[in-house]
Design brief:
Helix content: over 70%
Protein name: Entericidin, EcnA/B family
Largest sheet: none
Pfam families: Entericidin
Shape: elongated
Keywords: Cell membrane, Lipoprotein, Membrane, Palmitate, Signal
Distance between the termini: 45 Å
Structural class: mainly alpha
Number of domains: 1
Number of helices: 2
Family: Belongs to the EcnA/EcnB lipoprotein family.
InterPro entries: Entericidin (IPR012556)
């Protein structure tokens, strides 16, 4: 079970290297949503 978890985490990290820019945009959108909710 632990080997499967390590494998999946490795694959996710490798994919993240290619999508850091996209991830940054998603984090920015999430932050904007939180700010907007806080203003209400």
């Amino acid at each position: 079970m632990k080997k499967i978890f390590v494998f999946l985490m490795s694959v996710m990290l490798l994919n993240a290297c290619n999508t850091i820019e996209g991830m940054g945009k998603d984090v920015k959108k999430a932050g904007s949503a939180v700010e907007e909710a806080a203003r209400r």
